[in-house]
Amino acid sequence: MKFLVCIKQVVDTSKMEVDPETGRLKRNNANSIMNPVDLNALEAALSLRDRIGGTVTVITMGPPQAEAVLRDAVAMGADDIYLVTDRAFGGADTLATSYTLAAAISKIGMPDLIFCGIESIDSNTAQIGPEIAATLGIADVSGASFISFEKEGGLIVTRQNGSSAEVVELKLPAVVTVLPELNKPRYSSIKGILGKGDAELHIITAADLDIDTARIGIKGSPTQVKRVRPVVPPQKENLRIEEKDPQESVDILIEALRKISVI
C-alpha cells in the first residue's frame, strides 16, 4: 500500500506576529510548527503502514523553510518527503494550492490513500483535501473520526456530521481528511530524531510539473487575503446612569447599547 500525507507548516498561534507594515503574518522557523491536525493524518498513515505494510510519503507546499516540518515527519517514521516550492506558487489560495499539490502527487505517482488534516489553524477553510480529490478525480471523505481498512481494498470511514455520525465505504484510491479525535499521534523516536537530517529531500518546482501557469500562485487564486491583523479584545467600560428623568436614562442606555452593536 502506498500512503501519502499532505501537511502544512503554520504559524504557532501562541507566537503569532503580524508585520505592521504589510499586515501579513510573520512566517519563520522560530514561530512555525506542523499544523496540529496534520499530525493525526500522519499517524493514520503510519498506523496503517505498520499494520498492513507499505510506504508513507509526506508532501508539503511552501517556502524552503517548510522543509523543517517534513523532517519532523521523518522523525515520526515517514519514508519519503517532498517539498513543492517555487516563487511562482507564492500567494496561492486553496484552489491554486490544491491544483498544484494534485499535479505534484500525479508526478510522484498516484498513492492508494491520501490523508490530510481536516483544516489548518491559520486559515480554517477545510477545502484542500476535497479539492485535491476533485482535481485528481477520486473519492474523498471529510471529518473522519474512525477508520477501518478492509482486505478487499475498501476503506470503512466514520465521519462526524455535527452531532451525528455517518459510516461510508470508500474504494481506493481516495482522499480522507481526519479529525483530531481519530487518534493520538506518536512521539518521534530517538532514532528518527537523529536520522531526520540525513533523509533525502525531494524538491518539486513549477518547471517539474505539467501545469497551467495561469492556475498557480496569485494568478490562479480567485480569493486573496488583503490583510491579517490580531484581534483586539474590546475594552470594558462601566456605565452608570444617574439621570432623574426616566426617559433620559432610557435614551442614554439605548445609545450605549448602539455603540457596542447590541442593538
TrEMBL record:
| Coiled coil location | none
Judging by the UniProt lineage, the source's domain of life is Bacteria
Where do transmembrane segments lie in this chain?
none
**GO molecular function annotations of the record:** electron transfer activity
Ranges where the Electron transfer flavoprotein alpha/beta-subunit N-terminal domain occurs: 22-213
- Indicate the secretion signal residues: none
This protein is called Electron transfer flavoprotein small subunit
